[in-house]
Write a structure and sequence with these properties.
globular; alpha/beta; 14 helices; 6-stranded mixed sheet; 7-stranded mixed sheet; homodimer
Chain lengths: 509, 509
């Protein structure tokens, strides 16, 4: 590592210079086209993009194919065998004499969202604000040309996660091509549409198109830059599995006066069950939870140590005064498997609350996995924990007979699309090239991380192809990803275009 | 008691005879008018009746006043001082020479409800079914005349709770009057419209109309008959208080991958907090919770012992195999204060669930109180318990300063309209008269209970007037009161009419 680090430092000055010229051209191109770029982006954001909404997902695919054709690419859809599965949008650009092939990956589907929870705007009617909502940003008219304030934000589902990736990649391609800069690799564009639904068909589609999708590396554009605003390169992602848990009370809702104190309350039982899974300090108490964790190597530990310490600033911004797992830092903790309650519900709260004992209580859990974990094994640990709390665990509704014999019954099911964590070695040549290319676009020292806390189907890619993955995220960290009021800071899109232009023209072996 | 019981038995034969004649006439009247009665009831049920829906609540009041005018009564509205408070509908019937005045009380407002949770039908479009939903009852056309199957049910919000009370009382009045039977008391009709919202203005309206509302007893028509189907007379009700609890996490929703394991999850903290309030056996663990309970007297204990034991049958029907507080019976347990989770919510479950750490988690608690409890003192015990779990307890949103200094913050607020329990002595002359009248309408031995598990603003009445209350419920016990798919079995309405006709003509001192 030391040797290679020296090599990197040695090469930096000339690389910086070479890239600088491309960067300058790409920047000019962007500056001359800001209005058009945003208009095209708004058009894409206006199409609802939840993976289960098959009709609209295909409209997104059509729209992206049109964007590709406008850039001189020849796109096609890669389909799963089953019908009605959202397709991958694919295109390739051959660079004469190129010795390296890179797949540029982003996804165009977004997390489900409840429009009612958004503030003033709705998920698929993109709106500009003069700043973040939290900073009292006001709704503003869509800017049509310069000067466009790069601190403005676009509020829309997938503005950051991950149509920003699609937009940055395709605009970087246009900029490099139109300004006559030299591509250094063969480039394959892979835009997935089931990432937020667990990438359930990604492996199948890769298997069906192995030759087409082969590459020396997949460069993943998804997720946020570092909280400090510094660009980052991430060498892995946690694995992920969602689990649904339902606890059963009486078969019909009961008046909480006439039966309260007597009929078991499933909300209380679920509260007791969930409370048994973490201690007061936020440590997961499920037996064996951290047993399989593969320890970080020297390079990974060093990268974490070099990353900016940002926890105190984050806590201030988020209005929290004690974190789970303290005193360990965020960057340490995302290298452990987690158990998060995404949501729970029983009966109603607020104006619709009634004096009842609900019939069921449900929670959705999010299990994050790190290198060494297996999602099926982790699920089994959760199920065993629930059994050990005294529950009959089923994967379906209980029968009357089971209800009559069992005191406590839980339905526990893993959602489809769970996958394991993946991590690429930080000293591979391609890894160093990517770091070098991203570093060439900024005078700030970029952050390198062994893994992101978030998940990407990296293991699905590396299990089905002989390749590696490196992630180069571009979104602002405070983007409300996965939640209501998702947004993208415009400057992050501009920076992302330059980053991906640098990757398309980076030094090859 | 023994002496009085002997007196009761001695009087029974002639009373039975006398009432029998009235009952026969009332039954004939009802049989000749079943279609019309149901038509009038359906009309009343069709008007939405959540207390906060001030416009529709007044349409209900207008409709009830029309029903009263059709019966030769001269109704009026009793209003609170504040505008927009739902009014009481009042009328009186003077009986020449009567030595007793009774107020007949029911309420015409209903619990809030989410139409989406109803099965096939909606709350305010009443529909007949050939049996209970649980028994696979099918939707059927509105019957217009005999023969009407009395086992059919009407599905609608307030079909049982408590427009059934309004309907039974007014139809019983029509039946007694039209058949020339003799009223034995002065009768005042008091139909409240804020009972499901905590009767927040009942005390004020009573104070403003003290003379008008004075009576020897208020007879309350609300709630279900015994689970065995037997008629019952209930001498008290639990008090009630609803409490909202909200726990705070980060100020904006966070990606559960990027921040899971590090950012505190308010859903987990609420689960831990709620879990601390009851043990695994369902006993409330809040300090002092049962301290103020006034022990039951000999008469009350005897009544409970004489009541049919129905717990095993109930457990079978409800699909539960162990009850909270076992081995104590339902009738014992409703004589203790309770703590029930009416509902909780954080993030989303089901199709809308996302991989986020929610910003807040909320629960609505229902505290039931028994004789001896004070609702303000019980609320303080709850607040103290939450403080003892390490929370800063506020009655508003936390400030940024509080967030930065406090590890755990809870907003805890009592909803308006809390009130205490009330219980009438079972050996008062009016109590014995009521028991005798209700008993005269059935060959089954009626059930007498010291209290219902459910609540009624009895203490508001007895604190503001020198009177006593006795409850005579009529609805089927499996009526889904307060929940979706509320319903009334038609025979229970027919029985209720006969019961209230008996009360209007009962023996006076």
């Amino acid at each position: 590592m030391r040797l290679k680090a020296v090599g990197l430092i040695f090469l930096m000055p000339c690389i910086l210079f070479a890239q600088s010229s491309v960067q300058q051209k790409v920047r000019s191109f962007r500056q001359s086209n800001e209005g058009k770029i945003l208009q095209e982006f708004i058009g894409l954001l206006s199409i609802p993009n939840v993976a289960s909404d098959t009709k609209n997902i295909r409209l997104n695919a059509t729209s992206i194919m049109e964007m590709m054709r406008r850039r001189g690419l020849n796109p096609r859809l890669l389909e799963a065998k089953t019908s009605n599965v959202p397709p991958i949008v694919y295109a390739e650009w051959k660079t004469p004499g190129a010795k390296r092939t890179i797949d540029l990956y982003a996804h165009y589907d977004g997390q489900p969202t409840d429009p009612k929870q958004w503030t003033e705007t709705t998920p698929w009617q993109p709106v500009f604000r003069t700043a973040a909502l939290e900073a009292k940003g006001q709704i503003a008219a869509t800017p049509t040309g310069p000067p466009i304030n790069p601190e403005w934000r676009i509020y829309s589902r997938s503005a950051s996660d991950d149509k920003a990736g699609v937009m940055a990649i395709l605009t970087a391609f246009a900029a490099v091509k139109e300004t006559g800069s030299a591509f250094s690799s063969n480039i394959k564009f892979v835009f997935e549409s089931e990432e937020e639904a667990g990438s359930a068909h990604l492996g199948e589609i890769i298997q069906l198109n192995k030759e087409l999708l082969e590459a020396d590396a997949w460069i993943i554009c998804d997720g946020p830059v570092h909280q400090s605003g510094k660009k980052q390169v991430v060498f892995g992602a946690r694995g992920d599995l969602n689990v649904d848990v339902t606890i059963y009370g009486a078969k019909r809702p009961l008046h909480s006066g006439h039966y309260g104190n007597w009929a078991p309350n499933p909300a209380m039982r679920l509260a007791q069950l969930l409370a048994s899974m973490k201690d007061r300090e936020g440590r997961v108490t499920i037996a064996g939870w951290n047993d399989d964790v593969e320890p970080l190597g020297e390079l990974e530990l060093q990268a974490i140590n070099e990353a900016p310490q940002y926890d105190e600033e984050l806590k201030k911004q988020l209005g929290i005064s004690l974190t789970e797992g303290a005193p360990r830092s965020l960057l340490e903790l995302i290298n452990l498997p987690s158990m998060n309650i995404n949501g729970f519900a029983s009966g109603d709260v607020g104006a619709l609350a009634r004096n009842v004992i609900p019939t069921t209580a449900s929670a959705v859990l999010d299990l994050r996995l790190v290198k060494g974990n297996d999602h099926k094994r982790q699920f089994e640990r959760l199920v065993n924990h629930i059994r050990n709390q005294g529950y009959l665990v089923l994967d379906r509704e209980p029968t009357d007979d089971e209800r009559s014999k069992q005191v406590m019954i839980a339905k526990v099911t893993a959602r489809s699309g769970g996958y394991n964590a993946d991590r690429t070695k930080m000293d591979l040549p391609i890894a160093l090239s990517v770091v070098e290319a991203v570093q060439s676009t900024t005078s700030d020292k970029i952050v390198r991380l062994p893994t992101s806390g978030g998940s990407l189907p990296l293991s699905v890619i590396t299990q089905n192809l002989r390749t590696v993955t490196v992630s180069v995220p571009i979104a602002n960290y405070d983007n409300n990803q996965h939640a209501e009021n998702e947004n993208l800071r415009i400057q992050n899109l501009w920076d992302g275009i330059e980053t991906f232009a640098a990757l398309m023209t980076m030094r090859t072996p």
